[in-house]
């Protein structure tokens, strides 16, 4: 498979009055053409910062992409070194991003038709009539009913789910090679969530667009992602394909995320699992495993030494001392409820 994106040793800091916050630390991953990748973790784990750095949407300063970080697009260009001029065409034409709340991205004073047409005229050089026809086609592609009428509607006249569909249509208007969706379904009810995820899956197959999905909810990616990367405190702690993460995960943090997904196929009527404690302060130097203060399997070595990455298969790896030959054996099935 052809690689469309290679992120290599990405380190991002934020310079604050309190000190340097090392928000992303040594993150590396590849994304192939037409592939879907989920970055999963709780708030503040660095997933959105990682995603925004791919489109260079971080405000620099206070953010700083550290020396040595590389974000290679299509095997040739390093996004970290892109000129401002190239970045303008890169965003939209090569990579698009959609956010949790479409109202923050849509202009409330313009109709949705005007907004999509504007993108088509600027990025694809279309004339007004051609852009209008294309806009209607795009709205139909994302399953907006009565598209010819809807183009005259303002964002506030649409439901939350429909606004997110409009954002997806706008993001796809220039046939980007990568679509980044940052918590696209968080503000929506469960039925609409499922419809939006199905729609993203259909569009990925139809246009061969690679998708990076950012979410705190492993449940959302269950039927969607080809590969999943679990992030904690600015690092990737486990990565694998869907089966490996859902059925063979070996990292205690991934277990905690899996245990916090509500399930219908169980008799268990206990309260939903909640992970105790808080993530570490990323201003302070970290010693040992960043998850150690919250991990019920933490051993002495976890407090002293950062875990090394262990490869379990070509696609599955994790950073945890439980993989060390001397570590006590933990039964995954017993840890996971249900
Ligand atoms: Fe827990 Fe230790 Fe593994 Fe960290 S390295 S997740 S503290 S067992």
UniProtKB/TrEMBL annotation:
The lineage of its organism: Bacteria, Bacillati, Bacillota, Clostridia, Lutisporales. One of its GO terms (biological process) is peptide transport. It is found in: Cell membrane. This is Oligopeptide transport system ATP-binding protein. One of its GO terms (cellular component) is plasma membrane. Keywords: ATP-binding, Cell membrane, Membrane, Nucleotide-binding, Transport. Belongs to the ABC transporter superfamily. It comes from the Bacteria. The keyword Cell membrane applies. It is a peripheral membrane protein. GO terms for molecular function: ATP binding; ATP hydrolysis activity. Residues 7-258 form the ABC transporter domain. InterPro entries: AAA+_ATPase, ABC_Ni/Peptide_Import, ABC_transporter-like_ATP-bd, ABC_transporter-like_CS, Oligopep_ABC_C, P-loop_NTPase. Its main location: membrane.
């Amino acid at each position: 498979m052809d690689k469309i994106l290679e992120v290599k040793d990405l380190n991002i800091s934020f310079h604050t009055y309190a000190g340097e916050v090392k928000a992303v630390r040594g993150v590396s991953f590849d994304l192939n053409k037409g592939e879907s990748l989920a970055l999963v973790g709780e708030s503040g784990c660095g997933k959105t910062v990682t995603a925004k750095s791919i489109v260079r949407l971080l405000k620099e300063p206070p953010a700083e992409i550290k020396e040595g970080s590389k974000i290679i697009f299509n095997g040739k260009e390093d996004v970290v070194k892109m000129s401002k001029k190239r970045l303008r065409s890169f965003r939209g034409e090569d990579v698009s991003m959609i956010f949790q709340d479409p109202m923050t991205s849509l202009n409330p004073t313009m109709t949705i038709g005007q907004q999509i047409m504007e993108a088509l005229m600027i990025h694809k050089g279309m004339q007004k009539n051609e852009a209008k026809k294309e806009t209607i086609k795009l709205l139909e592609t994302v399953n907006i009913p009565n598209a010819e009428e809807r183009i005259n509607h303002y964002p506030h006249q649409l439901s939350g789910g429909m606004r997110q569909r409009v954002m997806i249509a706008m993001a796809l208007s220039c046939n980007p090679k990568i679509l980044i969706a940052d918590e696209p379904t968080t503000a929506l009810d469960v039925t609409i969530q499922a419809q939006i995820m199905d729609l993203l899956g259909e569009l990925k197959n139809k246009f061969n667009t690679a998708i990076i999905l950012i979410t705190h909810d492993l449940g959302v990616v269950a039927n969607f992602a080809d590969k999943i990367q679990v992030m904690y405190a600015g690092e990737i702690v486990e990565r694998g394909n869907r089966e490996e993460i859902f059925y063979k995960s070996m990292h205690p943090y991934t277990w905690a995320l899996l245990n916090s997904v509500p399930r219908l196929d169980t008799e268990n009527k206990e309260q939903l699992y909640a992970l105790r404690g808080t993530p570490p302060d990323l201003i302070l130097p970290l010693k040992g495993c960043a998850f150690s203060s919250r991990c019920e399997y933490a051993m002495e070595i976890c407090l002293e030494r950062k875990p090394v990455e262990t490869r379990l298969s070509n696609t599955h790896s994790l950073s945890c001392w439980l993989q060390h030959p001397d570590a006590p054996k933990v039964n995954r099935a017993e840890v996971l409820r249900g």
